[in-house]
Write a structure and sequence with these properties.
With about 240 residues, the protein is α+β, with helices and mostly antiparallel strands. It has ten helices and seven strands. Helix 2 runs antiparallel to helix 3, helix 2 runs antiparallel to helix 5 and helix 3 packs antiparallel against helix 4. The radius of gyration is 24 Å and the shape is elongated. The N and C termini lie far apart (about 50 Å).
Length: about 240
């Protein structure tokens, strides 16, 4: 079961299912809000909107579980994980309210929106907000700084890679405010990477001001991803 939640055809399940979740659930939530406040279209489209809510909520649950399976191998940003948990709970509550609202309002022609309808709308808005926050935090952890780093990495390596730094330089940059570390003979300024590290901030702050080769290689030996992530932060060599 774990392998099914981890990869499909060599691709991470989380990356595949999350796109379904962030499209189907918000669209269904917006549609259901329209159904609740527009009685004319309620009888025509409320059923399919509720089905969309059910499918979207299920995809959120799968996205959370697949994200946890993925995190066991590459780590998972804490903020993104927390938002994912909140969204899963909110989606479940929204799904239950949507089903109850649909069953209770089916066939009713009254234009008056019930308390249950208003409550369902509140849940829908909460789901929309949490979907945005979860998706944004996930995209931020993956892409923030990567595009800029790609265009500037060549300049960084050409201008700074020849510089040399001593143990005294490391001691002057041994805090989260300015975090330098040595890994396999190269010096990296990891200050900006602290909040982006998928495995949590503590793993990076423990490297500040010291030679972190043993710790890094012990956690990521032979992994191309972590090594590539370090490259934009290289500022020189250790002497």
């Amino acid at each position: 079961m774990e392998s099914l939640l981890y990869t499909v055809a060599g691709l991470p399940v989380h990356a595949l299912i999350v796109h379904f979740a962030v499209v189907v659930l918000p669209v269904s939530a917006i549609a259901l809000i329209a159904m609740i406040y527009t009685p004319k279209i309620k009888n025509k489209y409320s059923f399919i909107s509720v089905i969309g809510v059910i499918l979207g909520s299920a995809s959120v649950l799968i996205a959370k579980q697949s994200g946890e399976a993925l995190s066991e191998r590459i780590g998972l940003p804490v903020e993104h994980s927390d938002y994912g948990t909140y969204l899963t709970i909110a989606a479940f509550i929204f799904m239950v309210l949507s089903i109850i609202w649909y069953r209770s309002s089916k066939g009713r022609r009254s234009r008056i929106v019930t308390s249950l309808g208003h409550l369902t709308v509140v849940a829908a808005i909460a789901v929309l907000a949490l979907t945005f926050l979860t998706g944004h935090s996930g995209a931020q952890s993956v892409w923030e700084g990567k595009l800029a780093a790609t265009t500037s990495s060549a300049q960084t390596s050409s201008t700074n890679s020849s510089a040399t730094y001593s143990a005294a330089d490391l001691k002057q940059n041994a805090s989260a405010a300015s975090c330098w570390s040595v890994i396999d003979g190269s010096v990296y300024d990891l200050t900006q990477w602290i909040k982006k590290h998928p495995g949590g901030q503590g793993a990076i702050t423990s490297l500040c001001g010291v030679d972190g080769s043993a710790q890094f290689n012990g956690a990521h030996s032979g992994e191309a991803g972590p090594i590539n992530s370090l490259m934009p932060y290289k500022i020189g060599k250790f002497a």
